[in-house]
Write a structure and sequence with these properties.
This protein is of the alpha/beta class. It folds into 3 domains: 147 residues, Rossmann fold, CATH 3.40.50.300; 68 residues, Helicase, Ruva Protein, domain 3 (Orthogonal Bundle); 69 residues, Orthogonal Bundle (Arc Repressor Mutant, subunit A). It has 16 helices and 11 strands. A hairpin with a 6-residue loop joins strand 4 and strand 5. Helix 5 packs parallel to helix 6 and helix 13 packs across helix 14. The two termini are 41 Å apart. Bound molecules: adenosine-5'-diphosphate. The site of adenosine-5'-diphosphate has 19 residues, from helix 2, helix 4 and helix 10.
Length: 337
C-alpha cells in the first residue's frame, strides 16, 4: 500500500464496503467536530421547520476527516435522496446541466473536490445555486441559442481539501461553511471503539490508544489501521489486541509512533537531507519526493504543520528542530553548539 492509498478511499471493493459499513449514519453518531456538528445541525433543523430544502453547505479539510460522511448525513436527516459526483468528473458545463436537470426536488447533491471543476461548469453552478435555473447553450457559432431551464430545489454539499482554492463568488453562494479539523486522540479512540464493535474485534483501552496515536488525526486512517491490526492479530493468533500488538503491527506497516507515514517522512527527510532544512519552495519539494504538488500541500503538509514538524515561511518550507529530533538527525543549531 502506498502513502496515498492510506488517505484516499480504497479501490478494494471489500475495503470500500467496510468503509461504508463503518460510516456514522446520523449527526449523533458522528464523533468530534463539535462546532461543525452543532452549526450544521441547526441549519438542518431550521430547514425542516421551514419545510424548505437546506442551504448549500461547503465542507473543507484534509482527506478522510468526514466530508462525504457528513453529506450522507445531511441527506439522511433531511429524508432526501443523495447524488454523488466530483469536480474532475464534470469537465463540461453540459455534464453539470445533465446532473442538475435530473435531480428530484429536495435532493442532496454531493460535489467532491469542487475546486477541480472546469471553469464553465463553475459558472453554470453559480446560477443553479442561486436561482435554481441554468442556461443551456444549444448549437454552435452564430446559430447558438441559450435555453433557460428551471431546476428543482436542491441542496448542494461541496467538499474541498482547500477552501482557499475556491473563487470568492462560489464560496459566497454557500449558506454554511464548515471547516473540519484533525481529530484529537480521544476522539479517534471513540471512532475505533465503535468500529471494533461493528467488526467484532477485541482491543484493550491501551490498544485503542496506541492505534489512535498513530492515526494521523484522521478517522479514515484509524479504521484502516484497525483493519491492519486485525489482520496481524489473526495471523499471530492473538485474540485480544493489546498495546504492544498494535505497536508491533503498525510499525510493520511503516506507520511510525507519531503516525507519520512514508510520504510524511519523505517530505521531512528531503527537506533536511537535500535542502539543508529549507526554506525550499513547495514545487521543488514535491518534485524531490516524486509527488504532485497538491498531494504534498493538501495531504502531507497540514498534518506536519499541526504536529510542529514543518513550517511555512514566505521563502518556503522549513523543517523545525522537532522534525530533526523525530528523524534522528542533528539540527544545524546543535551542530554549531
Ligand atoms: P472525506 O470525505 O473527508 O475524505 P469520509 O467522510 O469518506 O472522509 O470519511 C472516511 C471514513 O472515516 C468513513 O468511512 C467513516 O467511517 C470515517 N469517519 C469520518 N468521520 C468520522 C466521524 N466523525 N466519526 C466516525 N467515523 C468517521
Amino acid at each position: 500500500m502506498t502513502e496515498r492509498d492510506l488517505m484516499q478511499p480504497s479501490a478494494d471493493p471489500e475495503e470500500r464496503a467496510l468503509e461504508g459499513a463503518l460510516r456514522p449514519k446520523s449527526l449523533d453518531d458522528f464523533v468530534g467536530q463539535e462546532r461543525v456538528r452543532e452549526q450544521l445541525g441547526l441549519v438542518l433543523k431550521a430547514a425542516q421547520l421551514r419545510e424548505r430544502t437546506a442551504d448549500h453547505v461547503l465542507l473543507s479539510g484534509p482527506p478522510g476527516l468526514g466530508k462525504t460522511t457528513l453529506a450522507m448525513i445531511v441527506a439522511q436527516e433531511m429524508g432526501a435522496p443523495l447524488r454523488i459526483t466530483s469536480g474532475p468528473a464534470i469537465q463540461h458545463a453540459g455534464d453539470l446541466a445533465a446532473i442538475l436537470s435530473s435531480l428530484v426536488p429536495g435532493e442532496v447533491l454531493f460535489l467532491d473536490e469542487i475546486h477541480r471543476m472546469s471553469r464553465p461548469a463553475e459558472e453554470m453552478l453559480y446560477m443553479a445555486m442561486e436561482d435554481f435555473r441554468v442556461d443551456v447553450i444549444v448549437g454552435k457559432g452564430a446559430g447558438a441559442t441559450s435555453i433557460p431551464l428551471e431546476l428543482p430545489q436542491f441542496t448542494l454539499v461541496g467538499a474541498t481539501t482547500r477552501a482557499g482554492l475556491l473563487p470568492g463568488p462560489l464560496r459566497d453562494r454557500f449558506g454554511f461553511t464548515g471547516h473540519l479539523e484533525f481529530y484529537a486522540d480521544h476522539e479517534l479512540e471513540l471512532v475505533l471503539r465503535r468500529s471494533a464493535m461493528l467488526i467484532d474485534l477485541q482491543v484493550t483501552s491501551a490498544g485503542f490508544a496506541e492505534i489512535a496515536r498513530r492515526s494521523r488525526g484522521t478517522p479514515r486512517i484509524a479504521n484502516r489501521l484497525l483493519r491492519r491490526v486485525r489482520d496481524w492479530a489473526l495471523v499471530h493468533g492473538v485474540v485480544t489486541i493489546e498495546e504492544e500488538h498494535a505497536s508491533t503491527a503498525l510499525t510493520m506497516y511503516e506507520v511510525d509512533e507519531r503516525g507519520l507515514d512514508r510520504l510524511d517522512r519523505n517530505v521531512l527527510l528531503s527537506l533536511i537531507d537535500k535542502f539543508g532544512g529549507g526554506p525550499v519552495g513547495l514545487s521543488t519539494l514535491a518534485i524531490a519526493v516524486g509527488e504532485e504538488i497538491e498531494t504534498v500541500e493538501t495531504v502531507a503538509e497540514p498534518y506536519l504543520v499541526r504536529e510542529g514538524l514543518l513550517g511555512r515561511t514566505p521563502r518556503g518550507r522549513v523543517a523545525t528542530p522537532a522534525a530533526y529530533a523525530h528523524l534522528g538527525r542533528t539540527s544545524p543549531g546543535e551542530d554549531a553548539g
